[in-house]
């Protein structure tokens, strides 16, 4: 055993003597845990049953908020993000709360103006946040200035992050070397960081690199060092141990049901590993087991359908091969699947490092991981051998302009020029702190949303998420009906479903139908249909009863008579998805050129109205896909005849967006 970790005589008792230098632990189950494994879909009502038990463990802090939770809560769960903070604070009274703050990006995906950033930190602190774990995707700490000023003003803990990224398999190389990270830590210390976090979002930090880095940081700066390492590649548990031997102050773990895969190492094995050493956590492993019991029985059955169990392996060696975050990889896979282009995944892997290099070797973390990811997918799907970057996303344009900050190395000059051609803010990139070019946004947001935002908390939802935030506020104040898709599911319905699946697997359901002896005779009018439901399809036969005549084909029926047509496949099939998939009828298409959605997404806005003349290449509609805005351009010259959707509508791939 390493000399830094000394074993003392002890018995396996809960009241064991306290260690000389216990490693401190932050629990991430209630934020990064479900964000990593269950698409951030954790509901507040499912956190309450374990909240007081978690408070009783002795964690240094619990991460409860920030990251993607704010977006997911209002968008998919019909939950007020601010309310979660206040609710959990009523149950967790002793343990400080931590949140993940994307610096000037707050909890959204772009830099917001200083007035929004200041108000957001102020309201988060007022609503109960204690530790602001702050990171910038480019490690450009000019993006910290505004939020840090307010964190300090609110008297809260400022934890500064260094996003850990690599361009080589191990620590080193031209860009991300040991010296780079020591330099970053010193910058953070100079800004008044109360602690410094190595944010290894992709699980890239190798155990011996963790050891070397922590040793060097402990020698270089005074602030406590905190290691956040995702398990994705399988190295995090080992990296934890080596970091602990090197003297790391705090590490991040999850409760077992929220641990491993793309999440974090579990706490229980670490407690046992360190038991009786001078870094003993002092935790009672039986109390942890009791929490797991509640989670397994009462909570996780509602979420296990969200767990990606498409693979048997719980680690992803692609991360080791591509130095890419697991969440980003799963996003790419699901996006390709939605576009029926999963066969292009190898091309995507090849294109990704090229795009990243072109864009200045930026770290891959929200939002840069999406920026690089979506642009990569765009290139693979749209580029031709003669022309690269045919469809450049709005976010890549912003990055090229300097709106996200300074990249680690300069952006490819040719790409930058191409991206900024006709860019609204100007064709010359900026070099100042990005938020300096942003006009204040709060007053404008208030004018737009009006009375629908009752207080500053509402306004901050709208200011960061204009489309989905407005939808949420309409649900919140009863101005629009809450769709069933955002309502919680109950444990009872899950149990019923599980029982049904169990029966089906045992063949009991099939047997029942086979035993039926009084089947009516099938007439010659019976037609068979394929009914598609998500990825499955069922072959059904429809045989009309009574006198209703069935016609040969639905098309002929429309032409021949307006009388109701007997069960067409559309009517028989349950509506599978809340997606406006229906392409325009053939007749409409014939009168103009349809502009089709190249990918599934949500309409942000149309930039043209019916009657407007457009030239080929003009921006017509902004479509959000994978949280990135894509500007779609006119495929030909002409006049906009009709527009099929409105802002906020969800569209499927191939949907007709407008007719030119
Ligand atoms: Co994380």
What attributes characterize this protein structure?
19 strands; 13% strand; binds cobalt (II) ion; Cyclin A, domain 1; 25 helices; 8-stranded parallel beta barrel; OB fold (Dihydrolipoamide Acetyltransferase, E2P); alpha/beta; 660 residues
In summary, what is this structure?
This protein is an alpha/beta fold.
Notes on the protein architecture:
- By secondary structure, the chain is of the alpha/beta class.
- Among the domains are: 324-421, Cyclin A, domain 1, CATH 1.10.472.90; 529-540 and 556-659, OB fold (Dihydrolipoamide Acetyltransferase, E2P), CATH 2.40.50.
- Helix content is 38%, strand content 13%.
- The strands form 5 sheets. Strands 1-2-3-4-5-6-7-8 form an 8-stranded parallel barrel, surrounded by 6 helices. The protein has a 4-stranded antiparallel sheet with strand order 15-14-12-18.
- Strand 9 and strand 10 form a beta hairpin.
- Helix 19 (456-464) packs antiparallel against helix 20.
- The longest helix has 15 residues, at 285-299.
- It is globular.
- The termini are far apart.
- Mean pLDDT is 87; it is low at 511-516 and 547-589.
- The structure holds cobalt (II) ion.
- Cobalt (II) ion binds at residues 32, 201, 228, 230.
- The strand count comes to 19
Q: What is the CATH topology assignment of the domain at 529-540 and 556-659?
A: OB fold (Dihydrolipoamide Acetyltransferase, E2P)
Task: Report, as a whole number of angstroms, the end-to-end distance.
Answer: 72 Å
The kinds of small molecule bound in this structure are: cobalt (II) ion
């Amino acid at each position: 055993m390493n000399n830094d970790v000394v074993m003392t005589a002890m018995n396996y008792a809960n009241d064991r003597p306290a260690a000389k230098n216990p490693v401190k632990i932050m629990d991430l189950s209630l934020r990064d845990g479900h964000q990593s494994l269950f698409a951030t879909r954790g509901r507040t009502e499912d956190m309450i049953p374990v909240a007081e038990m978690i408070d009783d463990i002795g964690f240094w802090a619990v991460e409860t908020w920030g990251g993607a939770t704010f977006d997911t809560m209002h968008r998919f769960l019909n939950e007020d993000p601010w309310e979660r903070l206040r609710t959990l604070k009523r149950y967790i009274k002793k343990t400080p709360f931590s949140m993940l703050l994307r610096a000037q990006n707050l909890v959204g995906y772009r830099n917001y103006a200083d007035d929004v950033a200041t108000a957001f930190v102020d309201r988060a602190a007022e609503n109960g946040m204690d530790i602001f774990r702050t990171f910038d995707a480019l490690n450009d700490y000019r993006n910290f200035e505004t939020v840090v000023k307010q964190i300090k003003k609110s008297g809260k803990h400022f934890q500064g992050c260094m996003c850990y990224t690599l361009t080589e398999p191990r620590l080193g190389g031209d860009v991300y070397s040991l010296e780079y990270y020591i330099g970053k830590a010193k910058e953070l210390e100079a800004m008044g960081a109360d602690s410094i976090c190595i944010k290894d979002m992709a699980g890239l930090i190798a155990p011996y690199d963790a050891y070397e880095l922590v040793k060097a940081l402990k020698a270089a700066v005074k602030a406590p060092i905190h290691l956040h390492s995702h398990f994705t590649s399988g190295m995090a548990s080992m990296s934890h141990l080596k970091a602990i031997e090197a003297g790391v102050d705090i590490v991040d773990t999850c409760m077992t049901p929220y641990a491993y895969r793309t999440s974090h190492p579990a706490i229980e094995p670490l407690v046992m590993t360190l038991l009786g050493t001078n870094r003993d956590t002092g935790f009672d492993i039986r109390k942890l087991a009791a929490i797991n019991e509640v989670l397994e029985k009462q909570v996780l059955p509602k979420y296990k359908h969200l767990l990606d169990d498409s693979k048997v392996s719980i680690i992803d060696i692609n991360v080791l091969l591509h130095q890419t975050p697991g969440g980003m990889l799963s996003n790419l896979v699901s996006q390709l699947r939605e576009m029926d282009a999963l066969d292009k995944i190898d091309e995507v892997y090849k294109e990704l490092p090229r795009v990243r290099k072109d864009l200045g070797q930026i770290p891959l973390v929200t939002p840069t991981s999406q920026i690089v990811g979506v642009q990569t997918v765009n290139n693979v799907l749209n580029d031709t051998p003669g022309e690269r970057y045919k469809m450049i996303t709005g976010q890549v344009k912003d990055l090229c302009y300097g709106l996200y900050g300074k990249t680690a190395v300069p952006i490819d000059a040719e790409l930058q020029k191409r991206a900024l051609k006709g860019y609204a803010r100007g064709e010359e990139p900026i070099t100042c702190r990005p938020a300096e070019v942003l006009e204040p946004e709060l007053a404008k947001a208030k004018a737009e949303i009006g009375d629908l935002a009752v207080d500053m908390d509402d306004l901050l939802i709208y200011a960061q998420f204009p489309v989905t935030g407005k939808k949420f506020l309409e649900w919140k104040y009863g101005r629009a009906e809450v769709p069933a898709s955002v309502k919680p599911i109950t444990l009872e319905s899950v149990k019923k479903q599980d029982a049904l699946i169990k029966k089906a697997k045992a063949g009991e359901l099939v047997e029942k139908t086979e035993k039926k002896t009084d089947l009516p005779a099938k007439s010659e009018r019976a037609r068979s249909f394929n009914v598609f439901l998500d990825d499955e399809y069922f072959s059904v036969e429809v045989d009309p009863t009574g006198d209703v005549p069935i016609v040969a084909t639905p098309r002929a029926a429309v032409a021949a008579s307006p009388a109701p047509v007997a069960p067409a496949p559309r009517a028989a099939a349950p509506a599978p998805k809340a997606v406006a998939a229906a392409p325009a009828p053939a007749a409409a298409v014939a009168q103009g050129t349809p502009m089709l959605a190249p990918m599934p997404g949500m309409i942000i806005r149309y930039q043209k109205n019916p009657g407007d003349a457009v030239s080929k290449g003009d921006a017509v509609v902004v479509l959000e896909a994978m949280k990135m805005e894509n500007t779609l351009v006119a495929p030909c010259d002409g006049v906009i005849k009709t527009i099929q959707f409105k802002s906020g509508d969800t569209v499927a791939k191939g949907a007709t967006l407008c007719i030119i």
